[in-house]
Amino acid sequence: MQIVEIDGFNAHCVAKGIGREVSLFMLQDESIEIGDCVMVHVGYAIQKMSELEARSAWEVYDEMLALEAKGA
């Protein structure tokens, strides 16, 4: 997800038009800024990612969803 707003250890993040409130607590030792991409799991940012890494992850996820929809 991409960070669009930061308030302390909380951030508003967006991915594919969906917004979520995300805790940045687990990345407190990282330099996090608006516009950065993070991997989110159960409401926590667990890893800072490059935009290319984030895009690649979404492509893999979309492929998995497409295969699941086909019943593969």
Description:
The chain is α+β, with helices and mostly antiparallel strands and 72 residues long. The chain has a single domain (2-70), classed as Roll (SH3 type barrels), CATH 2.30.30.140. The chain is built from one helix and five strands. The chain has one helix at 51-70, and strands at residues 2-7, 10-15, 18-23, 37-41, 44-49. The protein has a three-stranded antiparallel sheet, with no helix packed on it. A two-stranded antiparallel sheet has the order 4-5. The protein is elongated and about 45 Å long. The mean pLDDT is 94.
Topology summary:
Elements: E1 2-7, E2 10-15, E3 18-23, E4 37-41, E5 44-49, H1 51-70
Antiparallel strand pairs: 1-2, 2-3, 4-5
| Overall 3D shape | elongated
Number of helices: 1
CATH class, named Mainly Beta
CATH architecture: Roll
String of helices and strands: EEEEEH
Q: Residue-averaged pLDDT, rounded?
A: 94
